[in-house]
Design goal:
two-stranded antiparallel sheet, 6 helices, 2 domains, single chain
Length: about 200
């Protein structure tokens, strides 16, 4: 029987160590993928009010110390994002959901929300940067962007930053309920008054 030389022994140990390292990395990746699938499955199973995307949904505003809470207009690109906003703010504010920029414009015209939470990717055909800049700059309504973190969204975010929009919440990265709560000025009851 042939015994390996010391060099061959070192090469075999190195190869075995490399294989174990690769196997361990793949195991970690597989575990992370399984955990993500489980988390998505749990999120889908939770009983959540179904949001209608074809029309504006009105929720009855809860009252705090006898006075109504603030109104928040919401436009998101995915129902799951709407569920997360509802879970974070539903008990604190009167949420008005829209599925297009035209619907959001109607909400702003009818009820003068204190805050707008919007995803620039929700309805890209209608020039989201122009709409959000107009809401923020011309009407003085604070805007919180809630969007996916992608290279495509980076350009829009930079453009909106120049328009004065400073609050961004990234879907699936930092959209815990406290992030939405922290991004909103809760002392504000409506849009600023403009001098005639």
């Amino acid at each position: 029987m042939h015994h390996p030389s010391p060099l061959q022994d070192i090469l075999l140990q190195s190869l075995l160590g490399s294989l174990v390292g690769v196997a361990w990395a793949w195991r970690d990746r597989l575990m992370a993928w399984q955990n993500e699938r489980r988390a998505r499955a749990v999120e889908r199973e939770r009983p959540v009010k179904r949001l209608e995307t074809r029309r504006v949904v009105r929720l009855t505003p809860p009252r705090v110390n006898g006075s109504p809470t603030i109104i928040i207009a919401v436009l998101v690109s995915e129902p799951v994002m709407g569920h997360r906003v509802l879970r974070a703010l539903g008990g604190r504010a009167n949420l008005r959901f829209a599925s297009t920029w035209a619907e959001l414009q109607q909400i702003v015209a009818r009820v003068s929300p204190s805050v707008i939470i919007a995803d620039p990717a929700a309805d890209e055909r209608a020039d989201p940067a122009r709409h959000l800049a107009r809401f923020s700059h011309d009407r003085g309504i604070p805007v919180v962007l809630y969007t996916h973190l992608t290279p495509r969204s980076a350009g829009v975010l930079l453009q909106l930053g120049r328009a004065g929009i400073r609050h961004v919440v990234f879907y699936r990265y930092d959209d815990a309920p406290h992030r939405f709560v922290d991004a909103i000025d809760w002392d504000r009851r409506g849009p600023p008054l403009r001098a005639a």
